[in-house]
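ok trying again, last paste got cut off:
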Amino acid sequence: MDQDSKAEQLKSPEKEQAKLNILLVDDEPNISTLMERFIGMSTVASQISLIEKAKDGQEAFDILEKNKGKFGVVLTDGQMPRMGGLDLAKKIKASGA
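nice, full thing came through this time. structure:
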């Protein structure tokens, strides 16, 4: 395949880019709502399929376990009840969720 053919394939509307699912984790509803709005106004908004919210790390981990492979990005607060962001990240890494 020559360079022109490759370039045309990349431009083709049939080669639609995969949409991104984001999990927002924060115990303060105002902060997670603000983050959701910020993402919605950003230049990547058209590339996002779903934004789901969790109130703490444990709830987020439960969502990730039930939906393995669904979320490409997890944005988390550092300090929350039950499980903070660092502990969540460690648990995600250890489980492969």
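cool. The radius of gyration is 17 Å. Strands lie at 20-25, 48-54, 73-76.
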